Structure prediction request, 299 residues.
Amino acid sequence: MQCKRGLKRILPLLLLGVLASGASPRKSAPAVDCGTHLEGMERLLQPGALVLLGEFHGTKEIPRLLGDLVCQAASRGVGVSVLLELSADNDPFFEAWLSSAGQEQDRQRLFSTREWRSPYPDGRTSVAMFEMLDRLRVFRQQGWRVRVFGASVDPFQKSHDESMALGVRRVREATPQELILVLAGNNHTRMDVRQSMGGHLRTWGFTMTSLNVTASRGTLWTCRGPTCGEEPVAMDAPDGKPRLDLTPKALLSKGGFAELSSEHPAFHGSLFIGRITASPPAGTRDDPDAPAKGSGGAR
Prediction:
């Protein structure tokens, strides 16, 4: 009884002390709008994780999705390193861009490298890719831990896939606690072929999740035969909302594009993004009249 009486006397005094100090309930931070939310993706976007995203180049939607994933991780305080299917020669230009005010001279510095000025713009240096990089620049300004690298560290000494695998290993060894997101053509991110980037990483014992990005229909910018340009594409998947499927998938080729099956899995799962829209090149071609190199299959 005495204990209860004591509490009754103390509680009003504590309340008066809070009111007198001007304290108020703590307000929660406003939620960050990171765009497309994929159920189940949060558990993959963790510190120290490695996620390979197998894409087809030249769309608006896939770079936007990558930006969404970076946002969802970095806004929770996770350090994120993004690796793109470009040369590591771009690294200082990426860092300069992320640290810049985003002015025209900053953009021109970013576009001054060989790949952004290529006469064969196959979609890896599209307007959508630049918009994604600009979004990451804004994230950096907000104090989020975001970095960008070119995956291919030694394109003249190794195969393209081994060079990219070495690039992933370089970043992982330097930042073991950061989330690494790798965006590359799906023939490179597959794990069932030893010579692919994903195959090299698997052979070297890396723990990772490889996801194939899929769509229903639409257009993309690609180089095929003698020309580069917008091209229609239709896959067997019906239209629908973006979703994550963690059922192991295989990669088949049909009509020059990748399709999935459940035999001989090449990926841990897939990311469906619905309809896609072509995104043209962002940089200035050194030789706009040069013929384009041919492109074969999923890249």
Summary: The first helix runs from residue 2 to 20.
